Structure formats: C-alpha cells, structure tokens
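WARN no homologs supplied; continuing
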Amino acid sequence: MIFALEIIGQKWKIPILWHLSEDGALHYSELKRKIFGITNLMLTKSLRDLEASGLIHRQQFDTNPPRVQYSLTERGKTLTPILKSLELWGKSQMQRTP
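OK structure emitted
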C-alpha cells in the first residue's frame, strides 16, 4: 500500500490519471482546463513524476508551436478499475447524510 501511495498519492496525480483514463490522450492545456485549481508548476511536476513511474506516455509533436500529448501506458491502464471504484465510492458517500 505504501509503495502504491508513493507513486500516485500526491494530490494531483489521481485527477490526472482519471482524466486520461476517461478521455484518452490529452494535451497539456486540456488537462490544465479539466483539473480545477492545479497550477502549471504542479501539473508539470505531476506529469513528469507519472511519466517517470511508467504510468503515462508523453508524445511531443514537432509543430510550431510545439504540442505535447499525454496518454496512459499499459501499466497506467491497470489503474482504471481502481479509479472507477473510487468514483463509485465517492458518489455513494455524497448521497449519505452525516
């Protein structure tokens, strides 16, 4: 459990993985728009960490201006059922009264 949290446990990593699992490949600016409150610095750091962990793939296009697209790797796709379970759990908790 501790090892898994070291890889995906930071605040912004799960939302990044979630959007990539739901939407497929996304450009940096698309991720930035989808994840409310994330700064450019944290998005860049989180993307680099996830890429270093082998969970996402970064593809750079030689265009002007340069474009970068991110997608889940096969290893990253193994997290999809876990992310779906978290979504369902979260929805069930929203429906509960304290």
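The longest helix spans residues 80-95.
OK
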